[in-house]
Amino acid sequence: MDTAEAKDQTLLDALVRHVKAKPDAVAYQSGTTQLTFKELDRKSNQIANALVAMQVQPGDRVASLTKYQVECFLLTLAACKVGAVCMPVNWRLAPDELAYIMGHGQAKLVMADAGFMAGVAKFQSTEAPAARATVVCTEGPADGAAGFTAWYEGFSDQFKTVAIQADDAALQLYSSGTTGLPKGVVLTHRGLMSTNRTVSEDWHFGADGVLGNPLPTFHVACQTMLLLTLFKGGKTVAYPDFDPAAFLAGISKNGITHSFVVPAMLMFMLQSPDGKKNDYSCLKLIAYGGSPISDRVLEESMALFQCDFLQVYGLTEVSGPATFLNQQDHRDAAQRPDLLRSAGRPIGGARLRIVNPVTREDVPEGGSGEVWLETIRNFKEYWRDPKATEQAFPEGRNAQGGWFKTGDGGYVKDGYLYIHDRIKDMIISGGENIYPAEIENLLMRHPDVADGAIIGVPDATWGEAVKACVVLKPGATLTEQALIDWMRERMAHFKCPKSVDFVDAMPRNPTGKLLKRVLREPYWQGQQRAVS
Predict the structure, then answer these.
(1) pLDDT digits (tens, 9 = 90+) for 161-184
(2) What distance in Å separates the CA atoms of residue 162 and residue 84, rounded to the nearest whole number?
(3) Which of 310, 327, 334, 409 could form a disulfide with 420 if both were Cys (CB 3.0 to 4.6 A apart)?
């Protein structure tokens, strides 16, 4: 890392560097639109002036409800310049859910795409007239809202940034809300800068790197990838929507060197008819994470792209990454295939413990428990929820960020972290703790299975029983008993499913994460789960 980068304390420091050193270099590209570092600075200054004109103050929140990464990032930078905080919101939520998040964040401004105005209208209808947000539309005037560009372009492109510190809030992202209401996760400049440094070094992403970013704006990985380009001075090719064929074709066309995807995206790319016809020689690294990956999807992806692979285990609450299964680990997996089931080792100064979730005592190596993380990338707070913040750090905070209880179950072997599942996804059957990820990995190896998941369902004898939910490949005629028998030949019987439901598709959120809560709901109506 060069001396100038080492001095950066906030997200804006890197922008200042690049405006001086390479003002006309293209930083972000979306379709045919390109934005240089100089234009990034100028436009974010205009937006900052527009925010000041509507009396947005330091500490205020502004919401982004858009698919467009560049517009979202411009608002993020402008908010930082005035000391405010941008809240990218999950545009796939229902209007009531959107209204809750924007209300909880007390958004002073909402920038939204035209297709998401129903959620904005719901939010506005719940607020008193004096507390209603200013609304602008990314794509031009819509439903009475001014167009985003027209709203800010009349303001000066000069702005004096307010004084901000490393521990000030920089972003507010909302948890997925798979249990209870979504929580506003407040991330600091310090934490996000640590992510920039760690990722750029470990991924070997430099000023000549080209990042293909197909992730949705509300995902922490999307935001950290946008910031990676800002930090290093490379280039981002942004994709508002993920189209597997278009993304694959764009790798060679745009000279993409690095990308971060979720396993479901890899699966869809493997299924693309033209996938094997493209040139991927420019690719240096594909990072993946966000949900478990099957051995088959990973092995086939490595064979197709012929580049380095790196697995990321992380959470929104740790500003993205906590552990990496790095490039060398993937190469070593030819001799040590068990490594591919690992989430890797702590990175960027992070430390981890495996803790008994009941006694809160450390578990010896090899024993299963809850993953706790200590890192300066740990979040600042859950916005307006001090009780939840306190519960997330049972031992309090310290200079290294405090020990954060992740809710993930796993164990450590030879320094490598192995994730079982979310603690809440664990199945307890006849006193045995059963972790679905292990079973799902076998399930996905069946040649007739296109997608699948393992859940626990009520059982009068054992408390819970293992059930498989399966999407078959087109034309497959696999039966329930044939699948159960196949799995019993390869795994201990108590772990194997006792029943199988064949479904048309798996419920997933916009980032591809499987929604097991949705799968479980029909089976647990009127009953109390053994695992909350």
Answers:
(1) 999 999 999 999 998 654 457 899
(2) 10
(3) 409
